Amino acid sequence: MKHTKGPWEVEGKSPNGTFTIRANKGTKDIAWVNDHFNEKDDGKPNANLIASAPEMLEMLKEISGHLEGYMEYWEDIRRLIAKAEGSNS
Q: How far is CA 22 from the centre of its chain?
């Protein structure tokens, strides 16, 4: 299974304290992040992080091919790509 293609965007905070992450120019809901249950006001930063996931994954995939000589980083990047794509490899 593949994830919904980006870009993903964060909608403003609703009256109940929820931020909605949407794709396809706002036509598909991806996730909801709620900071109503804590006093940290971290809902917006968390929503921004989630919304940037497709772009970060694509960037990691793009640069991974250039880092094969730097094994320490290359292996970490490949592991994160696999994790993001739901693979154990």
A: 12
Q: What amino acid occupies position 16?
A: N
Q: Where are the domains of the chain?
A: 1-51, 54-89
- Report d(CA 35, CA 12) in Å as an integer: 13
CB atoms within 10 A of CB 38: 10
- Output the pTM of the full model: 0.71
Q: Sheet of 18-23: strands edge to edge?
A: 9-10, 18-23, 28-34
Write the burial class of residue 65 (CB in 10 Å: 0-12 exposed, 13-18 middle, 19+ buried): exposed
> Residue 3: CB partners within 8 Å, gap ≥ 6?
53, 54, 57, 84, 85
For 31-68, how does the pLDDT look when each residue is reduced to its tens digit (9 = 90+)?
Answer: 999 876 667 777 888 888 888 888 888 888 888 777 66
